[in-house]
């Protein structure tokens, strides 16, 4: 199923620039070239004093920037941070979904960049949230996604295991960004709630966020091509055909 804001196929793959330095990130950009249009910049790179030059390069190369700040602070502080980052030409940024935070972020962004609500980290299992089972965790994800939608977020970040539920409950207007993408049999690393690219897309994901399966692949460009093929095939497949 496609969201209302139907992105180009290529934009559906968000590559996480999870490398230790801006110099390393530039190497990734050069290596992936035109194959990738949407990059996630996260906490690892923000410590590099050259972060501004990376954002400049991304903008000059017409890449969309997903700034993964995962803000979780009092509303005034969140609003101030969002106002500052929104003036840097980014496409979207993330905040954790909690009362007061999402509302403050959306108001501060004032339409200049999208605010995405992180529901429950894909590295979390039920017991990490002091929940008994997967059903309890799914209920928390749904509740947080509803809060994000009501606050006016452009989208939410959730695992592929929850995408079908969110799509059915919340409709097509909320973009669903899905990290924790792993093909069957691949190393899950620190992720706990993982699904394949095909499964996530068929379930209704709008965007896949992928780091190590690309950056750690023997041939990252080939990994990107394979993911893009999965995306195109899943979009063409009748609902429920994911594997
Ligand atoms: O390497 P891997 O594909 O597991 O990376 C996933 C990326 O998505 C990381 O940059 C991580 O910070 C981010 N992310 C996540 N789970 C969330 C939100 C963001 O894994 N709920």
List the helices and strands and how they pair.
Blueprint: E1 13-16, H1 22-32, E2 38-41, H2 43-46, H3 51-60, E3 64-71, H4 75-86, E4 92-96, H5 101-109, E5 114-118, H6 134-151, E6 155-157, H7 163-170, E7 175-178, H8 197-203, E8 207-210, H9 212-215, H10 220-236
Parallel strand pairs: 1-2, 1-8, 2-3, 3-4, 4-5, 5-6, 6-7, 7-8
The structure holds cytidine-5'-monophosphate (C5P).
Molecular structure report:
- The protein has 243 residues and is α/β, with parallel strands linked by helices.
- The chain has one domain (9-236): Aldolase class I (TIM Barrel, Alpha-Beta Barrel), CATH 3.20.20.
- It is built from ten helices and eight strands.
- The protein has helices at residues 22-32, 43-46, 51-60, 75-86, 101-109, 134-151, 163-170, 197-203, 212-215, 220-236, and strands at 13-16, 38-41, 64-71, 92-96, 114-118, 155-157, 175-178, 207-210.
- An eight-stranded parallel barrel has the order 1-2-3-4-5-6-7-8, surrounded by seven helices.
- α7 links the parallel β6 (155-157) and β7 (175-178).
- α1 (22-32) packs parallel to α3 (51-60).
- The longest helix has 18 residues, at 134-151.
- It starts with 12 loop residues before the first strand and ends in a 7-residue tail after the last helix.
- Mean pLDDT is 93; it is low at 1-6.
- It binds cytidine-5'-monophosphate (C5P).
- Cytidine-5'-monophosphate binds next to β8 and α9.
Average pLDDT for all residues: 93
> Could you say which small molecules are bound to this protein?
cytidine-5'-monophosphate
Question: What share of the residues lie within helices?
Answer: 40-55%
So what's the overall shape? Answer: globular
- Integer tally of domains: 1
Structural class: alpha/beta
């Amino acid at each position: 199923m496609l969201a209302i804001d139907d992105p180009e196929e290529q934009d559906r793959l968000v590559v996480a620039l999870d490398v230790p330095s801006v110099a390393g990130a530039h190497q990734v950009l050069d290596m992936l070239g035109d194959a990738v249009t949407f990059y996630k910049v996260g906490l690892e790179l923000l410590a590099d004093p050259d972060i501004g030059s990376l954002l400049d390069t991304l903008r000059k190369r017409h890449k969309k920037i997903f700034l993964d700040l995962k803000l979780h602070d009092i509303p005034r502080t969140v609003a101030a941070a969002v106002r500052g980052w929104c003036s840097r030409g980014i496409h979207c940024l993330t905040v954790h979904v909690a009362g007061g935070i999402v509302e403050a972020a959306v108001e501060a962004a004032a339409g200049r960049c999208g605010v995405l609500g992180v529901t429950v980290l894909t590295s979390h299992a039920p017991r990490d949230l002091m929940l008994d089972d997967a059903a309890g965790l799914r209920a928390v994800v749904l509740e947080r996604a509803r809060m994000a939608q009501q606050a006016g977020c452009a989208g939410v970040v959730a695992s592929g295991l929850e995408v079908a539920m969110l799509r059915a409950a919340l409709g097509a207007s909320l973009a669903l960004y899905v990290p924790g993408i792993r093909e069957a049999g691949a190393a899950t690393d620190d992720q706990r709630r993982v699904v394949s690219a095909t499964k996530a897309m068929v379930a209704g994901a709008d965007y896949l966020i992928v780091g190590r399966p690309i950056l750690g692949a023997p041939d990252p460009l080939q990994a990107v091509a394979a993911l893009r093929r999965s995306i195109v095939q899943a979009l063409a497949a009748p609902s429920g055909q994911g594997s």
